[in-house]
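Module 6 notes. Inverse folding takes a fixed backbone as the condition and produces residue identities as the prediction. Think of it as a translation problem where the source language is geometry and the target language is the twenty amino acids. Below is one complete input and output pair. Work through it position by position during the lab.
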């Protein structure tokens, strides 16, 4: 039971942190809607009213000259890395492995189909045991439309993606524990620059559980977003807001 629940947790986290706009681009900068020859991105987030204190979230991403992420670091409030992972690519520029720095943590292997689309990810524990397999399906336009997650050989979740005018519009998360019914629906709205402007999460009863509204956008000379505020409304718990600032360096 613990293994199954752990698989569910990492499945939901993987979906939550996937790029919002498109899901089939073989370039990390493009997936994150970052423009130019970005070298590093350092991102800090504070809750509104506590901006003078240390950030609650802090990460740093490093990219190569081809736009592929080389390293993702989680930082603590003393600007020290407490968790990082590195990415390895093949000669064609496709990501083939994500591994933890320092030797502890899970490892992920990426597999592609004959036309270069990501078709499968396999996640392993530090001792080499299989944790989770995710299989991808695409439409005739090569857009990702479904992910099927397995914990060992047991299906434990499925996510469907719906698009409108080429942009991701809805994300439906299903779980076997819901007997075929979706567990969550995410609705996305993007601004004219291609950045996310609104994210709504609905439950099975079509009620909004979470609403994230992005505003107060700030951009640099390359057109990359370097600051924003998110106003959050929740079904349970009161509203709150956060502010995020980015420092971007270029090659």
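Target side of the pair, the amino acids:
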């Amino acid at each position: 039971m613990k293994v199954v629940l752990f698989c569910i947790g990492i499945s939901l986290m993987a979906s939550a942190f996937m790029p919002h706009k498109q899901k089939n681009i073989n370039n990390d900068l493009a997936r994150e809607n970052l423009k130019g020859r970005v070298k590093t991105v350092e991102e800090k987030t504070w809750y509104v009213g506590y901006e003078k204190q240390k950030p609650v979230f802090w990460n740093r991403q490093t990219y190569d000259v081809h736009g592929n992420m080389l390293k993702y670091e989680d930082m603590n409030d003393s600007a020290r890395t407490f968790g990082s992972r590195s990415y390895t690519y093949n000669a064609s520029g496709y990501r083939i492995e994500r591994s933890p720095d320092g030797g502890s943590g899970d490892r992920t292997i990426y597999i592609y189909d004959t036309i270069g689309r990501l078709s499968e990810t396999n996640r392993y524990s530090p001792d080499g045991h299989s944790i989770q397999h995710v299989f991808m399906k695409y439409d005739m336009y090569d857009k990702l439309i479904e992910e099927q997650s397995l914990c060992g050989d047991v299906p434990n979740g499925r996510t469907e993606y719906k698009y409108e005018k080429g942009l991701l519009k809805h994300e439906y998360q299903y779980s076997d524990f819901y007997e075929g019914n979706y567990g969550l629906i995410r609705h996305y709205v993007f601004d004219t620059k291609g950045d996310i402007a609104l994210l709504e999460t609905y439950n099975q009863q079509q009620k909004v559980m979470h609403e994230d509204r992005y505003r107060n956008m700030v951009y640099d000379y390359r057109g990359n977003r370097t600051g924003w505020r998110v106003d959050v409304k929740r079904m349970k718990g009161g509203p709150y807001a956060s502010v995020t600032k980015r420092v971007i360096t270029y090659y």
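Reference fact for the lab report: The first strand starts at residue 38 and ends at 47.
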